[in-house]
Fold this protein.
Amino acid sequence: MDRMTQAPPQPDAMLAWMECLSDPTRLRLLRLLERNELGVAELCDVLQLPQSSVSRHLKVLSDQGWARSRRQGTNNLYRTVLDELEPAARRLWVLAREQTAPWATARQDEQRLTQLLRDKQSDSQAFFATAAARWDRLRDELYGRGFARSAMLALLPSDWVVADLACGTGQVSAEIANCVRQVIAVDNSAAMLKAAKRRTAEMPNVDLRRGDLEALPIEAGECDAALLLLALTYVPDPEAVVKEMSRVLKPGGRAVIVDLERHDREDFRMEMGQQHCGIDPTNLEKLMRDAGFSQASTRPLAPEPNIKGPALFLTTGTAHN
């Protein structure tokens, strides 16, 4: 533990604090590091001092607990830890900062720091100016796409209960479970539910239930939202399924349906074991309004590269209050 956070007995502590703040260079460093994390080379440029002097004073500040460093590549970045100091030490610093504010040297340090930060921002802007044309591909290569999906899922209210209808192997349930209070995952296939159970075994807020979409094993008004992904084409009576979605939602609850647009690929329908060659979004919106949904709306989903199936659409609706 740092000396500053160990609360050494008075008056030794006070004398140590005053000794540390008795050097003008250390006061200048603390002013710079109070709001910024900077490397040694950057501090040398701002203070206009050699590295040996800057490093020596940084060591004193670190040893006395006024500053802390972390490694970034081959560099050490420094920042103050004033919020971790004892109240008396913080008051001493506030006084020192106030008294050093009129220093001409301190004002010039601020000017050079402002320019340094502006140059760093310009470097970032220059990078994006040249990377704009390839940024999407570059970002996917460096970071993947999962972070964006995780960020969007985090927008879900954490106290929601979400129904994942026709949950299959539980992929969507597992992703949502980290963001909401409970996921009720329903499927009528024992094999699918077995796979979903393996996938969500470490997620106690995923409730797996076996049942049909036309007669969901969910109480009326139990859910805040309901998802139905790529399932309507498999049921003989989509109207009954939409009515069940409405029944299990609370007033104001949200329904999201993703499915295939109408197509003429009969071979595809037979291969996939589907009941319908896609769904007419206009008819689906009417079914939703008849079932008690308001604000039912549809938009096509942009096809992803190299997909082989028919085009998809997304329909949303709000359960009546």
In short: The domain at 146-319 is CATH 3.40.50.150 (Rossmann fold).
